[in-house]
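User: I'm putting together a teaching handout on how multi-component assemblies are represented. Below are the sequence lines for each component of a complex, exactly as they appear in our records. Could you produce the 3D structure of the whole assembly as structure tokens, so the students can see both representations side by side? Please keep the chain order the same as the input.
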Amino acid sequence: MQCWKFMTTTSSGQPILRENEKDILMDQSVGLYHGKLKITNRQSGRIYLTSQRIIYIDDLSPTKLSLSLELDDIKKIDYSSSFLRRSAKMIIFITKNNNNNDNTAQDDTMTNLEEITSTTWVCPFCMVTNESIYKDLSSEIPTCENCGITPDFQMIKSSINISSQVFNTKENSKKNENVCPACTFINHPQIGICEICGTRLSNSSKIRLKANKKFKSLEDSRLQLKLEKHSNSDEDINKNTEALNVEFVQLSFRKSDGLLFFEASEKALRNFKINNIDTTNSNDNKRKQIFNQNLASINGIKVKGDNDIDNELPFLETNLKKIGITSLEKSRENQLLNNNILFNNALSDLNSLMNLATKIERLYRNKNISENNQKSLPAIPSLIIDRDKFYNKDLFLDEIAREIYDFAISEFTTSRNPSSKNSSKSKHIIITLVDLYAMYNKSMRIGIGLISPLEMKEACQRFGKLGLNELKLTTINKRVLCLSTSNSFDYLKEEILRILTDNPGCDLLGLTNLINNNTNSVNNTNTSTDTTANAWTMGVITETLQNCVNEGDLLIDEQISGIHYYGNIYWKI
Amino acid sequence: MNETNEPTRNEDNTSSGDQSSSLPATYSFPPLYTRQPNVMIRKQQINAWIDIILQFAQLHKYWIISQDGTPVSSNLSIFNNESIQRSVPQVFIDEIWSQMIQEKKALPVQEHHKNINQYFILWKDIQSWASIILQWFEDFNKLNQVVTIYELSQSDETMEYEFHQMPESLLKVCLKPLCKRNRATMLNDEHGTPIAIKVV
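Assistant: Of course. Below is the structure of the complete assembly, with chains in the same order as your input.
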């Protein structure tokens, strides 16, 4: 649990970065896991990758619940892709700070005690007094911190002053102090990056550990981490205590696949490690980085160094050393490179999206097949009727005729109780073939080949032959083909006339609403369940109205706003 | 004349207020204003319109109503119902008029042998008018006397009778049946137009 740090944010919920820290990437809808357990209240937030940390900003209360994770503490990261309902996760392995490590660290300090001495020499060119940790300058002469020139040993021989004794006495106390190697500011033991100049404090983790050992009670009170518990049994509590010391944490990407984030953080981590080695290994390299960055050669002599890495990972370069137009140019360059990376990753994102789509399709098909296997289920039947499965068109048409029949029945009588099925009132269906065609193709045929209107008609004509007697193909007004149950047209007509005598002057829309609500209420009194809201489609009602008008049962009132319908009360035929 | 026009128009406005109330209930039934597609229904609808026009004309003594439904002395069209915001489309108006003429409930007004898109409204048919006029001749002992057409229309003696203030041209039409039955003879002026009548 020590790896999590409290993260200060602005009131608007943006992370406050340190000096020298650069944000690289951001992702949405991320949840945090410690080990395998969810961290409560940290399940929906944004995640920022910066050059130094991974920062979690909570969506609900960013000022209170935000966390950060030092890249310094990360051993390695791993990625597990999403699988069906499991979202993609990035697994972060934390370097263990247990007692064994601590002992070795202490041993290190003991052995290093004599090695670390302070040697001063004066640069013969700019007369600046330089400091070096090396005792023997004759073998390796450091570069001047001010002018960047490596002088001849003979020239500085006289000015060398080894003050190891003074340093040694200081050593013990200094070891426990968090001294910045660049500016010598003594930072708080908990801080890993110098507060003044932003330099990474290389030995801070050891010091921090010691400090933690000293003040065991010293824990950030703002950090309130609770793990989600699966059950309350004793074993699990033990497990939970174990879980606190678990060496990995996970980021769960709820919306994206997190691949881009993973790649970016992998790069950031690699870069960070390289910088780490640079700073700890030799002051020489560090100085080169600061003063002669990207230097290829001095006076024709090639300079050793792994600057290539810097070019490869442009986003970690600090702008501290450059000012003015150069820095602007550089940052622009970085931006372009970042964009490049982003675009590349976007393409891979697109790829993964396609994968996801095929996955969904597969899932859908699998589900259908499994549902078909369980024929006892009363759910909407969804056999996959693929043209290729049938030897000839007749068989295919028969099969889709059955499916259309089932579809129409289930679509327009869903959620009606069997008891209501016995009552004749609620079982009237009329659907125009055009509507049915669209609905059927949209909901049943996508992915397995749409059917043509002609096939639909032919299939509907087969109902009688197949012993499907409830629905019949009928023609309203001698022009509109409909599937309907017997007497349903007369029923609908009666219904419309009844409604119009109650509400004279209704237009088509009002009538559609009224009739559907009305049949609902009628059915509700019978069965107390909801019927489908659009049992009567507008097309059917239009045709029925047309029929009524032609027969003289209804009168029309044509206005700009539309046609209003009235019952024929004055001019009986 | 202009001065007297103003108050009459106002009277018309006030009377048009109860115009819809004095007319049958169908007058405020919106479908009346739309030509119904069903032929049988439409026949009844046109009959309803003819009844309304006759009733409207009789009530206000509008002898002449122009093609668009406005009486000569008013500017409110019968085909326009302000209270329910409906009006009859022109095509349907024409259909109503032609049906009305066919049924001899209306007569096109002719000036110099030309139609001027105005119609006499005959809430009584011409035979009835003729017998009413004959009745007047008998009641007022005007038999075998020459009576000018102007007298028939405007004199105080006809005040009690319904044909009072009937336009002269319409009166001439109504008197024709009497001539045909040889009950009356027309007296023409020097241009050959009838000016007076003598009932035997």
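A couple of points students might notice: Residues 324-373 of chain A form the longest helix (50 residues). Chain A has a mean pLDDT of 71.
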